[in-house]
Specification:
The protein has a 5-stranded parallel beta sheet with strand order 3-2-1-4-5, sandwiched between helices. The chain is about 45% helix and about 20% strand. Strand 1, helix 1 (about 15-25) and strand 2 (about 30-35) form a beta-alpha-beta unit. It is an alpha/beta fold and about 160 residues long. The mean pLDDT is about 95. The radius of gyration is 15 Å and the shape is globular.
Amino acid sequence: MRIALCPGSFDPVTLGHLDVIRRASRLFDRIIVAVPVNPDKRFSFTLEERLDMLRILCRHEGLNNVEVDSVRGLLAEYARQKGALVTVKGLRAMSDFEYEFQQALTNKKLNPQLETVFLSAEAENMFVSSSMVKQVAGFGGDISHFVPECLLETIARRLCREP
């Protein structure tokens, strides 16, 4: 069985995240959407809220070979424990590549069996990021074009301010 990880903060989940998860689910037998625990980072949504949103999304999309889990510690070690040999990452721009390539090399050093596969973003999602969603929402803008419809109300309730 080919197991792959799709790691990310998912704060909040975007259509770009959904696109990468959906495409990865067609390439691998099993996908684990891995949400790292990072106590040093400030999030808009708690870890449990992000895990719940991802589970709702996967059920809504019928992604039956996708599971959602949190990661405490190193992703490379988590991959070893789960039997995953691949990490799937989405890329929007060259700036993403520099950071993700550094992460891939670090993970490879820590777990030589772990490969990283990069999926380029679909054109309509090239500019979508969790940070951009937060900024648009913070100014009272419409985020419905950037987040999955099944999560829109949950995300908007937390992030959107009245215009």
